[in-house]
Amino acid sequence: xxxxxxxxxxxxxxxxxxxxxxxxxxxxxxxxxxxxxxxxxxxxxxxxxxxxxxxxxxxxxxxxxxxxxxxxxxxxxxxxxxxxxxxxxxxxxxxxxxxxxxxxxxxxxxxxxxxxxxxxxxxxxxxxxxxxxxxxxxxxxxxxxxxxxxxxxxxxxxxxxxxxxxxxxxxxxxxxxxxxxxxxxxxxxxxxxxxxxxxxxxxxxxxxxxxxxxxxxxxxxxxxxxxxxxxxxxxxxxxxxxxxxxxxxxxxxxxxxxxxxxxxxxxxxxxxxxxxxxxxxxxxxxxxxxxxxxxxxxxxxxxxxxxxxxxxxxxxxxxxxxxxxxxxxxxxxxxxxxxxxxxxxxxxxxxxxxxxxxxxxxxxxxxxxxxxxxxxxxxxxxxxxxxxxxxxxxxxxxxxxxxxxxxxxxxxxxxxxxxxxxxxxxxxxxxxxxxxxxxxxxxxxxxxxxxxxxxxxxxxxxxxxxxxxxxxxxxxxxxxxxxxxxxxxxx
Length: 491
Fold this sequence. Notes:
The protein has helices at 81-85, 91-98, 155-165, 204-213, 231-238, 258-261, 269-282, 297-308, 319-331, 379-394, 468-483, and strands spanning 3-8, 18-24, 31-32, 37-42, 47-51, 56-61, 68-70, 74-80, 122-123, 127-128, 201-202, 228-229, 287-295, 339-342, 347-350, 356-358, 360-362, 365-367, 370-371, 408-412, 431-435, 439-445, 448-462. The chain is elongated, with a radius of gyration of 32 Å. The protein starts with a strand and ends in an 8-residue tail after the last helix. With 491 residues, the protein is α+β, with helices and mostly antiparallel strands. It contains eleven helices and 23 strands. The chain is 24% helix and 22% strand. It folds into four domains: 3-86, CATH 2.40.50.100; 90-128, no CATH class; 155-261, E3-binding domain (Dihydrolipoamide Transferase, Irregular); 269-490, Chloramphenicol Acetyltransferase (2-Layer Sandwich), CATH 3.30.559. The longest helix is centred in the last third of the chain and has 16 residues, at 379-394.
C-alpha cells in the first residue's frame, strides 16, 4: 500500500528563511530514488539543487516555478511504498481492465454532465477518468451561500454567472439579492447589472507578483481557465502589454503611461541579500579607503612566464593569481586587516588563517565565494582554487558554505575597464582590496618616461580595527610585491 509523503523546503544553510523555486527537475508521475535531484532553488546567497529524501513516484508539484516560499513549506509530494513505486504506465491497463462495460453505464443527462477531470468525466485526448487521480488534477472553489440566498440560486447558475462575468465583453457582476429578499427573486442578468468593480481571480503568488511589479491586478485581462489571471498576464502588462479597462473608468490606457515606460524588478534572492548586507556594512563599520598607483610591468611579465611553465599549462593564470598571493603574504605582517570586530564581546578577533573572498559578478547578482585556507596554498594550488571558484560562481552553483567564513576580499573591477573604486566591506570582515584595470601608461623610469603597465589599488578597511598606519603598511606591502614579485622571497 502506497503512502504519500510531503517534502518540505529545508534550511540549506545559515538560517535562511525563504527560497525561490527556480526549476523543477521532475514532473508528476516520474519515478524518483533517494537523493535524486528534484528541484533547483535560489536562496538569498546562491542556487542550490535539492535531493529527494525518499523514493517513489512524484504525486504533485505543490509550488510553481518562480514562487518564493518560506522554509518548512511543502513543495512536493511523493507516493512511496509498493503502490508509489509502480510505474505510472501500468496504472492505465489496470484501470481499463477494472472498468465496466461502457454499454452498462448510463449516460447522464446534459444538465447533469460531469465536469472534465472528475471521476467519469472527460479528460484530454478523449479519455475518461474512471479512477481517483487519473486524468488532470482539477479543483473547484465553492463559496458559502450568503444569508437569505441559500436555495434561491443553484450552484450551476452561480457558476455560469461568474464565468459570464469574466468572459469577453461581460465585465459586470450580477446584483446579489439582499438578505431579506424573497427566495423566488430572479437573478438579474449580467448584461443589465449595475457596474461594479470586480476583484480579479488570481492565486496568491500572482497577486504578490502584481504588487511587486506595481500592476493593478483588477485591470488585467485574464487568460487563464475560468477567468483567472495568470503569471504571464501580469508579466505581459508589466512589460507594456494591454490591460483591461476598469469598470468604473472604461477608458483605454493612454500611450506613454508610466506602466509602459518603467520596468519594476522584484528584489529577491542574491540581489536582496547583497542589498541588505551592503546597507548593514556601510552604516555599521566606519570605512576608510586608501589608493596607490603602481607599475606592475614585472608582474605582467611574471604571469607570461608562468603560463609557459609545464605546471601551469592546464590552469588559468592571470594577474589576479599574483595579487591573491601578495595579499596572503602581506596579511602576515598586518594581521589586523584579516580580523573581525565582535560587537557583543567588545573584542577584535584576529584570524590565523585567510579565507580569501573573490567578488564575482553573475547573472543573478554579485556573490563572494572564498578560498578556504588560501594562505596555506602554493601558487599552483591557489590557481586551481581560484579557477574552480570563478567557474562555479558564474554557473550559479556556488553553495552557501562556500560564501561563509570569509576573512578578506578582493574585487577585480579592472575586468570592466574601471581604474579604481571605493569598495564596501563584506559584513564581518575588516578589509577589502579593489584592483583596477592594468593599462599602458607613461611612467618615469630612471629619469626617463617610458610606457609601463600601470594599475591602481584601493583598500577599504574598518577603522575600528585598522588604523591609518596599519592600513597604509598593508597596502604598501601588496604594492611592493606587485611591483617586484621576487620580493615574496623575503616573506
